[in-house]
Amino acid sequence: MVPTQAYTIPIGLAATRRTGDDITIISYGRLMAEALKAAEQLDGEGISAEVIDLRSLAPLDMDTVLGSVARTRRAVIVHEAVRTCGAAAEIATRIHEQLHGELAGPVRRVTAPDSSVPAPAGLVAVFYPNADSIAATCRAMK
After folding, report:
1. Of 71, 55, 62, nearest to 10 (Cα)?
2. DSSP states of 43-54
3. Domain coordinates of the chain in residue numbers?
4. Residue 115: strand, helix, or coil
5. Considering the entire predicted model, what is its pTM?
6. Given CA atoms 37, 40, 45, 46 in this order, what sign does their dihedral have?
7. Residue 10, Cβ neighbours under 10 Å: how many?
8. Is domain 15-141 classified as CATH 2.60.40.10?
9. How far is CA 71 from CA 41, 99, 121, in A?
10. Is there a contact between 70 and 104 (Cβ–Cβ < 8 Å)?
11. 109-141: per-residue pLDDT in tens?
């Protein structure tokens, strides 16, 4: 939802859009809606997902991310850019550097494939991450 009146968003401060105890889903931008849908799907299966909205990548609020992941011990990072050299790779590296001994498993990424974006609209739907692909990755980590 976008407010109808003037508003500001604090740059460099992530927001917790949903609290949870089993896994942390980290995303930003357009895919926040898909991350929240995935969390709803998982909730129906008894998996409690916390959803972190980064809101900005530079500066990056790693304190919020690390606090959540330290508690849930599992992380899935979602973005619509390609997998290689994307923001998810940097965030995953920072999580591993800070929390490697506390994690229940490796940080996972749900991204677009390392390919150019397909032109036909029907292919775009399977190219970008969505609630189903996010939830499937989270399920596989449980």
Report:
1. 55
2. HTTT--EEEEE-
3. 15-141
4. coil
5. 0.88
6. positive
7. 10
8. no
9. 21, 10, 39
10. no
11. 999 888 876 666 667 667 788 899 999 999 998
